[in-house]
Structure formats: structure tokens, C-alpha cells
Amino acid sequence: MKIKMVHADNMEELFAQVSEVDKAQDIDDELIGTSIDFIKVSDSKTIYCEALVYRTGDDDEDL
């Protein structure tokens, strides 16, 4: 299993970065889950985060 974290200042930038990360994965990596979170830094600043979880290797592989 492989987890990639992406963060950005707005949702548009976040989705662009997620798309780039997804394209860069090995052909055998299977995206099995995502999780989006929002971190409010101040009244005018929010950081958008997304975790992407990929299945890698054989199904019989010990984790």
C-alpha cells in the first residue's frame, strides 16, 4: 500500500495536483481510497489536503 498526500491553497489547485500525482503512479497501482480535509489556518487562509491510497504489488503481499 502507498499513500500520497497533496495540499493546495484552493480546490482547483488541489484537483490539478491530484491529477498529476495520479498520472505519475505505476500502471499497476490501483487507487483504492481518498480523503479530503480542510485546515483553517486563519480567517483568510485555508489549506486543502487530500490523501490518495493506492494498492501496490500482489494481493498476497504482507503489509
Automatic annotation (TrEMBL):
Domain of life: Bacteria
Stated name of the protein: Uncharacterized protein
